[in-house]
Each structure stands twice: as structure tokens, then as C-alpha cells.
Amino acid sequence: MLSQQAIISLLTKMGDDALIIGHRNSEWTGLGPIMEEDIAFSSMAQDKIGHAWALYRVMQEHLGGQDPDQFAFMRAEKEMRSCHFVELPIGEYDFSLMRHFLFDHAEAVRYESLENTAFEPLQPFAKKFKGEIKYHLLHADEWVLQLSRGSEESYARMQQALLHCMPLALGIFETSKAHEQTLIDEKIYPGEQALQARWLDRIYPVLSKAGLNLPGIESFTPVYGGREGYHTAYLQPLLDEMSSVFKLDPTATW
Amino acid sequence: MHTTEEVYDALQSVMDPEIPVLSVVDLGMITAVDINSDGILVKMIPTFAACPAVQYIQRNIQTALEEKFSVAITVIIDQETLWSTSRLAPGAKDKLEQFGIAAPQVVDGKAYNEILLQTPCPHCGSKNTYLRSPFGSTLCRAIHYCKDCSNVFEQFKPVE
């Protein structure tokens, strides 16, 4: 018998990251620098929110969880398990693009590792999401390369965005004090440390092709807290906004 | 008692709302048809996990079958089967291209960005094309540009 609480903690943080980054990405709708980018961020937003919904649904069907919409929109800020990285406003395009690059590679290694998870109901979703995220990576890698090779200014912005994002991106891999070892022992997933190492192996080649300089990761202090319910000041206003329509009538059917 | 063939025939009239030349059968969205004394059970899957049209399509299937057959109709989402490009019916590629959308190119069941660079243009057939964006007007489409006939065109993207 697998530890349900441990699996719930894993699926909740994954779903919350996808839900929040999805809502952030959707803020580019109508504002993208060119039409294709507007469409790209909007499409990725739709994918992420769909992934969050599916993960919440797995918890509902197999782990005694709530209705996905209720779970997404009715929880208090303190109950959310998203990392700080996904909560930050979209900022300028360099930040959003670098966040997309670092976050999506992290998601890709995570879903790859879950294709054979001991928690079987998750396996088909891990496979499905991996196939969809491939297009997110195609997009992210291409633009990181193009902008890093563009002009002096675009290169400088990408380099600065990378240094700014790294401590936050390392926060994706914050371990769960209560459940990490259980999840590894029960072969649910390989653990955050292993995922972080695989992630670095994925992003290094692209960054080096782009000519961007990534200092050793020991020089960064990871931004932790989100997985324990401590969030940035940006999360509550976002939760208020994204749940405002739902909260008008939480029992309405759509 | 109705036959599975009759049900599939009826399903051929239920078109995808985003690609109206392809039926749910052409798209490989139907995973099972079960006929028993309780009525007809149809299992279906979405192409993309976040496809916003799933419930709409589910309702369309329900309505189409109810019009045709006077037994109870149940349409459910199949949780076990995953959609991939290989589920497209044999005739789907031609129908897509006649509609002006390039069909997904698949080599050994896999799609890579190199393949996305030489997607044949549905207007002039040239392979001198490049991917402009992996995201198009719907989740299942990408945008390409043809350097020979200078047209922007969409492709039904390959998914493993």
C-alpha cells in the first residue's frame, strides 16, 4: 500500500505550479511582442491549466480528493504549494521567456521520471504531458537561442534574466520535509535532488549554445518556502483574480 | 440489435468543431463502441489533454446517436487510452491537406524539430518550409511558412 499523503503532496505541488504558471502565461494574451508569441504563450497557458486540472482529477478519483475546480479556486493561499518562481508577475519578456525555459525543462524531466511511477494512475498522464511539453521546449529553446544571438541588448537581457531566475528556478526542487524519503523509497519518483541534476544536464547544452554564462549552482541561494505554504506577496492577488468569477457562484455548472 | 458498424457509420457524421473536415472517427477519438441490452456505450478521448472542445464533442456524439438509434446512449471519456498521431484514420491525411492544413509527419512513430523544418506545404507541395511557431490557432496546430509560394500555413502537429 503506497502512502497516499505523500502522493497527494507531490501531485498538489505539481498541479499548483502548472495552475499558477498557466495563469501567469495567459497574461501575455493580447500583449505578446509579436502575434505568434501571443498565441504561443496563450496555448502553453491552456496546456498548463489542462495539466493542473488532470492532476487534481487524479487525486479526486484515486486519493479521495475534492472536485478539481473547488480544489483549484477555493483553497486559501496558505494551502497552495506552488513555488515562488511561478507566482511572480510576467515582468518583461526576457523574464517570462527565461522562466518558461527553466520551468518547462524542469517539468519535462519530472514527467519523464513519472512515466514508470509506482503510482500507476499517473503513468498515462506523465506520458501524455511529456508529449505536449515537447512543443513548449521547442519554443523555449528556439527563443533563448535567437535572443541570445540577436543584438548586444537582447544578449545582455537574456544573461541578466538567467542570473535573476536561477535562485527562483532552484526553488522548484524544494524537497518535502515530511514526504520526500517516502516518495523515493516507494518508487513514486526519484526525488527532487535527482530531478535537479537531470534538469541541469538538460539546460547546460542549450545555455552554452546560446553563449550564456551559468555560474556554478552552489553560488546561488535557492528560493524555498512555497512547498511549505509560505508564498510571495504576488500569489494572493493572483488567486483573488483567477477565482473571482468562480466564487460568484461556486456551485454553478458550466 | 444494432451493429458496431452502424454506430461507426453514424459517428462519421460527427465532425471535429476545430477541423470540420475530419470526423471523430477520422481523428481516432473513438476508442470503443459497446452495444448491449442497456443501449450503446461509446468511449472517446481528446487529442490534447486541455482540449476545450471535449465536452462539446461528447454532446454532439450523444445527440447524433440519439437521433439515429432509439436506445439509451452513453458517451464517456476513456481514461486508459492516450491519443497520438498514429490514431488518425488512413483517409485523414488527404482530407486535412484538401482543407489546407498540412498533415503530421511521423518517422518511426516520433516527431522531431528537424522534421518540422521540412513539412510539405499544402498549397504548392514544396518542402522548402520552416516552422514559424509550434503553436497555432488551436492546441493541435503549428504555424509554418513556405519559402516557395510565400504562404503561411498550418499543420496538424504530430504527438507521440
UniProtKB/TrEMBL annotation, chain A:
Q: Which InterPro entries match?
A: Aromatic_CoA_ox/epox, Ferritin-like, Ferritin-like_SF, PaaA_PaaC, PaaC
Pfam families in UniProt: PaaA_PaaC
Which residues, by range, are in coiled-coil regions?
none
Domain of life, per the record?
A: Bacteria
| GO cellular component terms, semicolon-separated | cytosol
Q: Name one GO biological process term.
A: phenylacetate catabolic process
Query: What is this protein called in UniProt?
Result: Ring-1,2-phenylacetyl-CoA epoxidase subunit PaaC
TrEMBL record, chain B:
> Which Gene3D superfamilies does the UniProt entry name for this protein?
Fe-S cluster assembly (FSCA)
Top-rank lineage group of the source organism? Bacteria
Q: The MIP18 family-like domain covers which part of the protein?
A: 5-66
Q: Which residues form the PaaD zinc beta ribbon domain?
A: 118-157
- Which InterPro entries does the UniProt entry name for this protein? Fe-S_Maturation_MIP18, FSCA_dom_sf, MIP18-like, PaaD-like, Zn_ribbon_PaaD
- Quote the NCBIfam families the UniProt record gives: PA_CoA_Oxy4
Please report the name of this protein according to its UniProt entry.
Ring-1,2-phenylacetyl-CoA epoxidase subunit PaaD
Lineage in the entry? Bacteria, Pseudomonadati, Bacteroidota, Chitinophagia, Chitinophagales
